[in-house]
Specification:
The chain is mainly alpha-helical and 185 residues long. It has helices at 2-9, 12-29, 42-51, 56-76, 89-97, 104-113, 117-127, 152-168, and strands at residues 81-82, 139-145, 172-177. Strands 1-3-2 form a 3-stranded mixed β-sheet. Helix 8 links the parallel strand 2 (139-145) and strand 3 (172-177). The longest helix is centred in the middle third of the chain and has 21 residues, at 56-76.
Length: 185
C-alpha cells in the first residue's frame, strides 16, 4: 500500500498539477506579485465553487495558470521551449485526465495553507525532494530537455528552482528545451 502511494506521489501529471497550484498561489501572494490574479486564494476558490462546485480547484489553476503562462512565455519565449505552464501536449492531456478528486488530500492541505506564504513554501519545499534550494539565479534558466519532463526528477528540479526564486524574492522562469541541441541555455 505504501509503495502504491509513493508511486502515485511521483506521477508526473500529479506532480505538475501540485507544482502549478503552489507556484500560482505563492506567485499571487508575494510582493510584487508575479502575475495579477487572485484565483489561488480562499476567496477566489469560494467564488469559483459557485460556478464549478466539483472542479473549483482545477478552474482556479487553469485561470491563474493562463496569466502565469503569459509571464513565462514573455520571459522564455514560446518556440522550442516548455515550462510549467506550457508542457508537452501528451503531459497536458494526462493532467486533464486526472479525476477531480484524484488529489483530495493535497487540495485539502493546500487550502488549509492559503493565506500563509510560509506554509505554501514548506509544501513547495516538500515537492523539491532532496534538492531543496538550488544555487541558480532567478530569471529564465534552462534546467533540462523535453524528455526530462516525463520524469519526477524534472519536477523536483523545477520545484527547487521556484523555491530558490521565491526565497530570493526575484521572479524565476525555469524551462526545458524542446530538443537536445540548440535553443537557449
Amino acid at each position: 500500500m505504501k509503495e502504491a502511494h509513493e508511486k502515485e506521489d511521483r506521477y508526473p501529471p500529479l506532480l505538475a498539477l501540485r507544482l502549478r497550484a503552489l507556484v500560482l498561489a505563492i506567485g499571487e501572494s508575494v510582493t510584487p506579485a508575479w502575475w495579477k490574479t487572485e484565483f489561488m486564494s480562499e476567496t477566489g476558490l469560494r467564488f469559483l465553487e459557485r460556478l464549478y462546485p466539483r472542479t473549483a480547484f482545477r478552474a482556479a489553476v487553469h485561470a491563474a495558470g493562463a496569466a502565469a503562462c503569459g509571464a513565462h512565455d514573455h520571459a522564455v519565449g514560446r518556440i522550442g521551449v516548455y515550462h510549467l505552464f506550457r508542457l508537452p501536449e501528451s503531459l497536458e492531456v494526462e493532467i486533464n485526465r486526472l479525476p477531480p478528486g484524484a488529489d483530495a488530500s493535497f487540495v485539502s492541505a493546500f487550502r488549509a495553507s492559503l493565506g500563509s506564504t510560509e506554509k505554501l513554501m514548506e509544501m513547495l519545499a516538500s515537492l523539491s525532494g532532496r534538492l531543496k534550494e538550488t544555487g541558480e539565479s532567478a530569471g529564465a534558466k534552462r534546467i533540462g530537455n523535453a524528455e526530462d519532463l516525463m520524469t519526477p526528477d524534472a519536477f523536483e528540479r523545477t520545484a527547487a528552482f521556484y523555491l530558490h526564486a521565491f526565497v530570493q524574492g526575484k521572479p524565476g522562469f525555469p524551462y526545458f528545451a524542446a530538443e537536445q541541441s540548440g535553443g537557449r541555455g
